[in-house]
Structures are given as C-alpha cells and as structure tokens.
Amino acid sequence: MNDVTLNIGKQARTAARTLALASTSQKNAALKAMAKHIRAQAAAIQSANDMDVAGAITKDLKSSFIDRLTLNAVRIEAMAQGLEDIAALDDPVGRVQEKWKRPNGMEISRVSVPIGVIGIIYESRPNVTADAGGLCLKSGNAAILRGGSDGFATSQLIVAALQQGLADGDLDPNSIQMVQTTSRDAVGEMLSGLNGTIDLIIPRGGKSLVARVNENARVPVFSHLEGICHVYVDKAADLEMAKSIVLNSKMRRTGVCGSAETILIDRAKISNLAPIISTLINAGCEVRGDKETMAANPAVKPASEEDWSTEYLDSIVSMRVVDGVDAAIAHITKYGSQHTDSIVTEDQATAEHFLNDLDSAIVLHNASTQFADGGEFGFGAEIGIATGKMHARGPVGVNQLTTFKYQIRGNGQIRP
Amino acid sequence: MNDVTLNIGKQARTAARTLALASTSQKNAALKAMAKHIRAQAAAIQSANDMDVAGAITKDLKSSFIDRLTLNAVRIEAMAQGLEDIAALDDPVGRVQEKWKRPNGMEISRVSVPIGVIGIIYESRPNVTADAGGLCLKSGNAAILRGGSDGFATSQLIVAALQQGLADGDLDPNSIQMVQTTSRDAVGEMLSGLNGTIDLIIPRGGKSLVARVNENARVPVFSHLEGICHVYVDKAADLEMAKSIVLNSKMRRTGVCGSAETILIDRAKISNLAPIISTLINAGCEVRGDKETMAANPAVKPASEEDWSTEYLDSIVSMRVVDGVDAAIAHITKYGSQHTDSIVTEDQATAEHFLNDLDSAIVLHNASTQFADGGEFGFGAEIGIATGKMHARGPVGVNQLTTFKYQIRGNGQIRP
For chain A, N or C: smaller number of CB within 10 Å? Predict the structure, then answer.
C-alpha cells in the first residue's frame, strides 16, 4: 500500500479522536470559518475550476458531466451557505437516545457518538467536497475525500479552505483530508479500509461507481445502487391528486434517485389510465406500457421485461395495470430497489396495508416520491440515500453519521 | 453453489416476507408451542445428544467443548423456558421510533421492521439452536442455522421441534431452517450471502470462528472478536468498592467476553495496589504485572507486552500502574477491543471524562464489567455482543435484530 495514503489514514484516526470530543461551538466556529475562507478564495477556486473544466472539455466528456464539474459565483456561494446551514443544525453527538434504570439501581444511557473515519468516494463534483467535509465535521467524524480526477485542482483548493477553517476553530486540519493521488489505486486502498483506519465508505456518483464500491469494499458502505421508485394509483385514488403526484414524482427532476420510474394503475378503476398517460405525455414524458396502457393511448410504446427494472433517470416512464394493492406490492417487490415507493388512495386501510407490507426504505401515502431527500425530511442536509438494511436507511444526514455507546452509571454494583 | 443450500436461502426469503407481517400473538403462540414440543421431545433430544456426545468423546475433543455440547434434563428445560421468556418480551417490530410533522403537513414516522434473513453460524452448542431460532422469530426474521457438526443430530431434533411450533402458530416452518450438510462448504456459501438471500450473519463461538466469519463474509456481520475488558481504579476510588468490582469483573465467570482481563491502578493512590492484588490472588487468580505491581506482591509474575492485548478467558489477569485517567484511557485505546470498560471512582467529573472519552461499546462507572449482557441490560435475551460501529453495538437483543423504514403520510403533497 502507498505510504502517503496510509499516512492519511493514520492522521485521520488521530484527528477523529480529538474531533469526537470537540464542543458544539468549536465545530460550528470551524464550519463558519470554512464558509468565510471559501468566499475569500472564490476567485482562486474559480480559476482552478476553469482549468479543470477546460481539461474535461478537451477530453470530450459528456455535457452533463461538465455541468456537474462547473462552478460559478452562485455555486461557490451555495457551498459557503451550505456550510453555514450545517453549522445551524443541532449537534448530533452526545444525544441521549434512550435512558433507563435497572432494578439494581444502575442507570443505562444510550448516547450518540461519531462513527470515526469516513471515506467519501465521488465523481468530479466540487460541491460534494464542501458538503461531505462539513457533514462529517458536524457529526464528529474525520473525512478522507477522494473526488474524481477531473475536478482535482478545484477540490484541492476547496479542501485547503476547509482546513483553514478547521485551524481557525482550533481543530486538527487533518480532520478533512483529500487523497492526493489521482490514480485509481487510491480508491482500492480506501475500499480495503486503509489498514483499519476507515470505518465507513460513502460513494457519491453513478451506478458504476456505486457498484464498484459495493463489490469491493471490505468495510461498511452506505449507498443506494439505484432508485427504481414506483407510484401505485389505487382504485380509491382521487384522480386529480394522482395526476399531480405522478407528474411530480416523474418529471419534477428526472435525474434524481427519488424520481419515479414505473407507474402502476389499479385495474378496478382502469378509467384512471388514460388521463394519467395524457398528463405525462403532455409534459414531454415518453410512456412505455403493457397491453392495456398501449390500448389507452396510441403514443404509448411497448414496455419490455427489462423496462420494469430500468432506472431511466430521464423523461421516460414505464406503466402497467395491476390487480389491486397486493399485485402492486408484488410488482414492486420483484422489480424495485427498496428505495422509495408511493401509493395514491383515499382508502385508509389500503394505504396502511401498502405502508406496512412494502419493504422499502421510504414508503409514502398520497405524496410524491421526490420527497426522498434529507432536506425534505428536515435533516438539514444529506450525504446521500441508503437502501441497505444496516444502520442508515433512507436519507443519510448528520444523525445517521453517528453510532452510539452505552454509558452505565452505578454505585458499586457487581453481578451475582 | 450447492442446490440444496441455495434452496434453503430461497425458502428463507419467502418465509421472511410472511414473517414480517405476522402478528405478535401469532409469533408468541408459535414460541410457546416450540417450548411445548421441546419438552414433549425431550427424551428423543436427549438420546440424540448422548450419541453426539459419545461421538465427540471418541474424537478426544476438549472437556470444555464436550460440556457445551452436552444436554441434560435441566438444560433441555432451560431451552424451553428460554423460548417462553422470548414470547413474554415486547414485540420489537412495528415500534414507532420517531415521528414528526413537516411544514407542508406530511407526517414522517420511523418504524421498526425485521432485517429479513439472518444466518447464524455457531459451534456445537445445541442451546444456541433454540435461542437463535426464537430470537429471530420474535424479531420477524427468518433464520438459517449452521451449528457445529458434532452437535448435528441434537440440533436437527431441536429444529424439528421449533418447526412444529411454527406450524402450530400457522407460520411458515421454513422460518427456521438448518443447513443440512455437515461440510464446511456450507459456511462459505452462507458467508457469500447465499445468492443475495442472507441479509446478516451472526457468528457465535470462539475467536477463530469469529475471525473466519469477519474475514470472509460478503454481508454485514454482528460480532465481537474478543473482549479485552478493563477496570481502572482511580485515585478517588472507594477501596472496598474497587476490590469488589475488580474481583467480580475478573472472577465471577472467567470464560465470558465481559470478564476483565486487565486492571489499571492510578499511581496517585498506589496504596490501592497491594490490597487489590491480594483480593485477586486469594480468589485463585494469577496476576501478571508491571514493575510496580511485582514490587507490591512477590506472587505477581512479570507481564510481557503481549499480556496487555491477551484475552485470557481464564483465572489470569494483567495489572499495571498508570498516571491517572488519561493514561488509563490511552492504555485502553491502545490495547482494548472496544467492548466493555469500567472506572471505579467517587469523583464525578473523572467518571464523566472516562464515560465520554473512551470509544467502547459499553463504558461503566462503579459497576462490574460482567454486566455486559443483554439480560442484565433488560433486553430479555441476547444473541451476542457486537463491537462494530454499525447498527448494533453492545448486547444484541430482539430490538437490535430489527432495522427501520420511513412511513410518510400525506394528503397530496408534491415537491416544488
């Protein structure tokens, strides 16, 4: 293993120990100072970013990639503001989650503590550097950042600003480090846990990056591979509400993981089918459907078996008729990704059946799947969405970046 | 992969879906029926066990191994009683852990749900078969059990009794299955996740078993490799309390993971050293110490560097003098296993410093390390102790065998 990378791991572990004990005001002062330094160094960050973007253009990379890489005055200010927003959040560390007394008089408290050292592997999106660094700091964790090589110069200056903020707050600048090498080996080393110094990996990026991380990580990972989200329109749905929720779930933003990819319509009220298809098509969405959906509108294209498990991340939706809520649940269980699914119905019992039976991280009744977002949950900010069964599920905010320990207070108790 | 084992995985996944929706009374009825069948088949279980024990004796296995394998009337009744105790616990599934309303009127609830399918890999201890099966059932999880081959015949009959109980409660008998092969390949297949059908592995057994599971599992694991637990006797300790807690922490039972392996004495009250050493030696404990400890009592043997990181699981303890609470924390951080550590002091501020700064799953003030136990926490029963940072930390009871999902109730909310 690369000595430089290994050393980053050791430094992070040392920083994590002091960070776990840092006071709320110290962490918040550092976050505010980070925002100040981002603003003060905006011009230098912009020049570095211009260079990174120019490099990416000569490589003929996709325009969506270039867009995510590109900073401007508004986006730089948004990074600074984001850090101040994180400062305004409640401290997630030291919360007494539960407390109880045992018959022998011992008092047991379950108290939130930081996880330790978190590795974040992401694509060439400079704003993730500030977001991830800020969220890890607030939750008392040391961060090891490894962004995409095309945004390296930009991220380097952002990390420098974050480290100046740490120093201003009397915190160890190694609390937020960037892996200096641009080689792909660094990713492999991080996935192996950097010799036991990394406690958790969070990947931020497309499916291929997340898949690589999930397959190769030897430490826990918070991730979602894809968001194949569904809206089921029950026979007892209010049609206007259904149209509004389907349209918003699919089309508000098509590139986010919480956007709907499949719409299921209850056969018992098949008259809902045509107006919902029209709503989508009028909004510029391609609809791919089963026989019934195709019969309802000539613009509908045939859906293949593959469509039901495809995350389009685009203005395309698959649609099919199902025999009631149980068939909807069966479809979602077979083709979904346990991310976010919604039912539209005025029937309370059917709604509860859907909310209880479906094994997804987020299940909604009469609301848009696009609410799958830490900010919309009131978490303030999120580092991603997790679909695993362990620890964090759904939006990963600062509280989800903590673990806990039991503190037991006694007065001499021994065990019989 | 072995078709038979793969099929067990598929059957478990199917059972898990129905089990997640089983009512509390249905699960409790099954648990009580299981206890009934264990009692009714006690004679057959005993004969099978006699056979297993005879086989192990011909292999000349260790007496502690034979002891753990051996059943008798009292132990069979304890298994049945254990299942009834699990029935009496509150249902951990469906608990609303948190609930809040968003400004747009949406109500978000975080509700506990089962994890899914849990694989338990354990040594030849027949009682683990009933305990693990019962705890998984209560928490709505399907269990795939793989016990040591030397207890195979016994475990097979116990599983048959559990499955009869499941059938009596109208639950899928495949909710608790045993891997039928006695080959070690089955373990490897379980560690790979049985083609995505296993969500979590829990190893129960010695260090080599746990190490193998930790190294090779491709799914999350709840485990602790070892319990190198400490008692720190601060200068402000009450000496009588310190003697009592040190003695109990080390000697109540030396073979459990929560037993103390190292005692740290504050140099500022070095007069505590001699009486604490005597207490241990008088109880039949071998003491290995640093220079100061050796100087305090001629019976003390020299401790090597290796002693500080050794889990004796025997009547042996290592002991050293440290310069106050921070040196104690530094020693524990360097040599401990983040399991369970205790401070004895009458100084509240020092106690809080120890409880807050030490990164162990369980930290105690003025109480014995042997309280590291789910029953002692009031969890009713535990399937083990976890020292990882993810999800479950400390005793793993039925609540720790659940995860959660977010249920969101709206009335047509869409995202702006």
Answer: C
Pairing of strands B107-114, B402-413: antiparallel
- Looking at the fold, whether A170 and A319 belong to one and the same domain comes out as no
Geometric angle at alpha carbon A25, from A24 and A31, rounded to 5° = 90
Tokens 């110290």 identify what position? A26
Q: Which amino acid is at A252?
A: R
Chain A interface test: which of B191, B326, B371 (most A C-beta within 10 Å): B371
Number of domains in chain A: 2
Nearest CA in chain B to A364: B408
Whether residues B39 and B173 fall in one domain: yes
Chain A nearest CA to B52, separation (Å): 33
CA dihedral over A125, A130, A135, A137, signed as positive or negative: positive
Contact A370 B116 (CB under 8 A): no
Write down the pLDDT at residue B121. Answer: 94
Asked if B166 contacts B172 with a C-beta cutoff of 8 angstroms, the reply is yes
Q: What angle do CA A275, A278, A279 make, to 5 degrees?
A: 85
Examine the domain organization and report whether B148 and B23 are in the same domain: yes
A216 shares its domain with A275 = no
SS3 A123: coil
The verdict on A245 touching B (C-beta cutoff 8 Å) is yes
What is the three-class DSSP state of B87? helix
**Per-residue model confidence as pLDDT tens for chain A (416 residues):** 566 777 899 999 999 999 998 999 999 999 999 999 999 999 999 999 999 999 999 998 888 889 989 999 999 999 999 999 999 999 999 999 889 999 889 898 999 999 999 999 999 999 999 999 999 999 999 999 999 999 999 999 999 999 999 999 999 999 999 997 666 688 888 998 888 899 999 998 888 888 999 888 888 888 888 899 999 999 999 999 999 999 999 999 998 889 999 999 999 999 999 999 999 999 999 999 999 999 999 999 999 999 999 999 899 999 999 999 999 999 999 999 989 999 999 999 999 999 988 988 899 999 999 999 888 888 877 888 888 878 788 888 888 888 888 889 988 888 88
Q: Is A334 near chain B, with CB under 8 Å?
A: no
Q: What is the DSSP string of B139-159?
A: TT-EEEEE--GGGHHHHHHHH
B96 touches chain A (CB under 8 A): no
Q: Do A105 and A70 share a structural domain? A: yes
Nearest to A195 by CA among A410, A1, A399: A1
Q: Give residue B297's domain range.
A: 229-376
- Closest alpha carbon within chain B to A347: B411
CATH of the domain at A325: 3.40.309.10
Q: What phi, psi does B19 have (nearest 5°)?
A: -65, -35
With the C-alpha atoms ordered B192, B194, B199, B202, is the resulting torsion angle positive or negative? negative
The nearest CA of chain A is from the CA of B85 a distance in Å of 18
A53 & A119 share domain: yes
Structure tokens at A353: 């059946």
A191 — contact with chain B (CB < 8 Å)?
A: no
DSSP A208: H
Decide if B412 and A363 are in contact by the 8 Å CB cutoff.
no
CB of A357 less than 8 A from some CB of B: yes
Residue A318 has a pLDDT of: 98
Lowest mean pLDDT among A174-183, A299-308, B10-19, B124-133: A174-183
Is some CB atom of chain A closer than 8 A to the CB atom of B370?
yes
At residue B182, the pLDDT reads: 61
- Looking at CA atoms only, how far is residue B225 from chain A in angstroms? 15
- A99 touches B: beta carbon within 8 Å: no
